[in-house]
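ok trying this again, last paste got cut off
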Amino acid sequence: MAGPHRGDGSERSDPSPETAESGGDRADGGAPTNAVTSGATAEGVTVSVVLPAYNEADTIEATVATTLGTLAAFLDPGTFEVIVAEDGCEDRTPSIADRLAAEDDRVRHVHSDERLGRGGALERAFEAAHGDTLVYFDTDLATDMRHLEELVERVRSGAADVATGSRWMPENVADRPAKRGVPSRVYNGLVRTLLRSDLRDHQCGFKAFSREAFEDLRTDVEDAHWFWDTEMLVRAQRAGYEVAEFPVDWEPKGDTKVDLVRDVLGMGSQILRTWWQLSVRPRLSKRVGLVAGGGLALLALVLMTQYIDFGTVLSEMRAADPVLVVAATLVYLLSWPLRGLRYRDILAELGYRERVDFLTGAVFISQTGNLVFPARAGDLIRAYVVKARRAIPYPSGFASLAAERVFDLLTIASMAGVVLIGYTVTGQTAELARAFVGAEGAGRVAVAVAFGVSLVAIAAVGAIAVSARSDRDYVTELVYRVSTDSYADFVAGVIGRFVGDLQTVAGTRTGFARVGATSVLIWTLDVVTALLVLAAFAPALPLVELIAVSFFAVSVGNLAKVLPLSPGGIGLYEGAFTLLVVALTPLGPELALGAAVLDHAVKNVVTVVGGYASMLGLNVSLTTAVEETREVRGAEESPKLD
């Protein structure tokens, strides 16, 4: 498990009594950096109890006394120790723990100057522990201490490798207020369902591990925060260890609240990450990757026939000029190398140099995925591909995708705005408003969403430009407004780097100009494609009007696709496109819908064919790409180029 709590192993060596005593009498009231303070020796100790502590100055002394008394009631003298795993406290907890260790040779103090997270602090303390039975429980003593003997003996006797108290077993359900009980049940239900755990309560802070189980599992556990013990329990079951769950009396202490960062971003993402590692990744193979890649392309083609009723527009489509349709297809093909070029420039601003052909293939694959999965979930494929094939870190991969989306939205919103200004100048805005008010169904919703997204896009770009030139850390400030948990440090760091990379692209004049110019070319070709398709229906429109309506219809149609209601925005694009054409021209709805369907079909077919060809050419698919990330997961992130 990679993380800041991994030291060089020096923490495992206990200082001498003289060092321990002086550590407890420091004039500044502090504690040695990353030190273990203890008067105990390893000889005879079989049970090590760890008390994870963060700012527990008011309770830690009483908790240690209660723990020592409870252990002494059923264990022989000299066979147990109590370790205060103090995790970067900001109060008097370190000095109190030092004093307790100096006064009682059964007490030890593991100190860290920086917060390691709950899991990190526990793992580090277990590493330093002397016993073969490793126990921990929360310092608020919410679990009745009369259960401590059963917890210890379950593991010490060899009856179980791992033991955990439970508040949700049928014979002893804890009386918890809804604000704590409901989230806990939802969390445990997700763990049981997705991670196939047989346990009912994974969060109860009352657990014990054999030394053998801990040493075997610790290298596989990746989380260093609140998910650490859940992951230990799940992986222990998967590894075949005997895990015992028994009911405990538990009384809530304090006012624990739902924490957005910890509970949603932290715990939720860790459940999904563990599910992927344990349930999906072991089933991946090259054969599965090829089958999945082919199925991905075929499914995209099938979906195009499911969301649209082609029967109402077939006659109009049959009359379309095939020469112009072919020309439209060729024009749209020209936009794909430009997409690869733009992605190259974005990555270059982030410090990574890659070939245009490789990046064009990666874009093809991800866009094909977007035709299958809603909410642009196919974008994840590209992040996986560049991580696996070029070791570009995930935060930078996602930042590059976000930068691309920002430029896309800015470009198409600007195109729509320019045309709208043109219609305002010529006095045609009133006709557009009347058409919108009278419209029904998906078209009206799509246009409303499109205009809303355009405003948000412009506001977001402006905010990024402003923050890129500011010395304030707005990201960290925002995270700590909604969370003070230790996991907030990790989340703030990841998001901060993500936004920093995004600001790098948007904040450099040269980069902004290059990426912006390429974006304009890409979407101009997209508009020309739609223009040629419209022209294939012989609409008898003046060229200027044909160009204007094509710009507006394509812009609003693509903005409407942001609404995650269908894969690839199929249906939304056609609805918005049709509404705009009917509103701005004398063309009938049948012709407008036929043009919208054909325009989107041309673009989707090119995307699917290019995506499938790229999968074969690069030997990459969603499954194989994710499988290969295992080879680079533990490697250091590749250094950025100057």
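PB: full thing came through this time. The radius of gyration is 30 Å.
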